[in-house]
Specification:
Length: 480
């Protein structure tokens, strides 16, 4: 998807990156794809032995059978070893290059990998013959209709700034060490003549048996027609408060302190959508599934059954191990493959807080939400405020990303801890301006009458001075 179809054939391409960024793994995957198509392949190695390459491939569950390995590095000559072994340290640079071209001419491969240019650069010693030989090699390979990847680990001294001008395409790899958690790998196409590739950085991951690339999202490329109707919650009073429910193609933020019922309210919308035959997806950065399932059971919401029936996609997202690009890709798979119409992201605090070094997270989230809106998905974001009572604050101001904002608060009345709900904004229609009490209890959610005598909800210190009769029920156990 990044290359809009793949590498141009019969051209010389460069993959560059520091050691450990994944160049060899990508190159091997490039050749394995060719062998599966019945093409002849050659791997020219000047940095690793054939045994090391075979061992690394085996760690991915790959076999290099069918790939010709031409080994050009110091090694112990083994008469039983069918690979060719030379000693470039004792040979002239021109002889080494000649050995490569002679082997290619003899075996006539359709795809070639040369690993790595750093060794050739050191062997050449002088930039001028190095450039001339590479230019000769390029013409030789193109004349034989070979598609070639050359790898460069960028460890040798430069003098090579014009190397990019020699090759047809350049793919740069990068590995970023986080303050905490797994390193993040990403790539970008620095140059690719003749194709409309997707520019910018794209996260990728090396997993057993595969190289997974997560193209950066361009929301405007993904527009779908949809009926902009409202999705009800299944609680008539809540829908009335929200002016009929939450609309498809919009983003709603549930804001409130920990324990105020944000996730439980989101679950009501999830199950209401599933009851209407929709598919929903829940991405949790905070809770385990066991915790969520217990709360859902207490509310009478059959979340476990929905997952087992394939109606609800559940994903426990670990931001310390997950790259932003991979998270976006997981959301897209639920929307495009499973046709999810409701998406919950719980919570934004963990998503942003565990990746402080990622300066573009707000932009990525904006692009993701625009994409979901374009697909007609009703999205609910959960944001936990800092503190429980008193001076409660928003750790992140992302209200500008949301079409609707619902505020949940605790308040005290008649010696009991209660909860209030109000709608701060709704771009797509009218909503009720009243502040209402709500309660979560076994069997569902109840929304009370407007709290006319409740003051201070927006200041963070709510105080109820009205009669007890207007409050919901009496004291008792509640699930939040």
């Amino acid at each position: 998807m990044v290359l809009r179809g793949g590498l141009p054939k019969h051209r010389l391409h460069l993959i560059e990156g520091a050691p450990g960024t994944g160049k060899t793994t990508i190159a091997v995957r490039f050749l394995l794809e060719a062998t599966a198509r019945g093409e002849r392949c050659l791997y020219v190695t000047l940095s690793e032995s054939a045994e090391e390459l075979t061992s690394s491939a085996a760690a991915h569950g790959w076999s290099l059978d069918g790939i010709d390995i031409f080994e050009l590095m110091p090694a112990e000559a083994d008469p039983e070893n069918q690979q060719t072994v030379l000693y470039p340290a004792d040979a002239e640079f021109g002889d080494t290059m000649r050995s490569i071209t002679e082997h290619i001419e003899a075996t006539r491969p359709e795809r070639v990998v040369i690993d790595s240019l750093s060794e050739l650069r050191l062997l050449a010693q002088d930039p001028l013959p190095y450039r001339r030989q590479l230019l000769t090699l390029k013409r030789f390979l193109q004349g034989r209709h070979v598609t070639t990847l050359v790898l460069d680990d960028l460890t040798a001294e430069a003098g090579d700034g014009d190397l990019h001008s020699l090759v047809h395409g350049v793919i740069s790899l990068q590995q970023i060490e986080r303050d905490y958690g797994a390193a993040r790998r990403r790539l970008r196409v620095s140059k690719m003549r003749g194709i409309d590739y997707q520019s910018g950085w794209h996260d990728f991951a090396l997993v057993t048996g595969e190289v997974l690339v997560f193209p950066s999202l361009i929301a405007e490329e993904h527009k779908a027609r949809f009926d902009a109707t409202a999705i009800p919650s299944g609680v008539a009073e809540l829908d009335r408060l929200l002016g009929g429910g939450l609309d498809r193609g919009t983003t709603t933020m549930l804001v409130g302190p920990s324990g105020s019922g944000k996730s439980s309210m989101a679950l009501h919308y999830v199950m209401a959508a599933i009851d209407q035959g929709e598919h929903a997806a829940y991405f949790s950065f905070d809770e385990t599934f066991e915790t969520l399932a217990r709360r859902a059971d207490a509310l009478g919401l059959p979340v476990t059954e929905a997952i087992e029936a394939g109606k609800l996609g559940w994903s426990r997202a670990n931001p310390s191990r997950l790259s932003p690009g991979e998270f976006v890709w997981k959301v897209r798979r639920e929307v495009e493959d499973e046709h999810a119409r409701v998406v919950i992201i719980d919570s934004l605090n963990s998503y942003f807080g565990t990746m402080p070094e990622e300066r573009s997270l707000v932009l990525q989230m904006h692009e993701l939400l625009t994409y979901l809106n374009n697909q007609g998905v009703m999205t609910i974001l959960i944001l936990a405020q800092q503190g429980v009572v008193g001076d409660v604050q928003n750790p992140i101001d992302l209200s500008f990303l949301s079409d609707a904002v619902v505020l949940l608060r605790f308040f005290e009345a008649a010696g009991e801890l209660r909860k209030a709900i109000s709608v701060i904004k709704k771009r797509t229609g009218t909503h009720e301006l009243a502040i209402r009490e709500y309660r979560l209890f076994p069997g569902g959610m109840q929304i009370g009458a407007p709290l006319i005598d409740l003051q201070g909800v927006l200041t963070g210190v709510p105080r109820y001075t009205g009669p007890r009769e207007t409050l919901i029920g009496s004291a008792g156990d509640a699930t939040g």
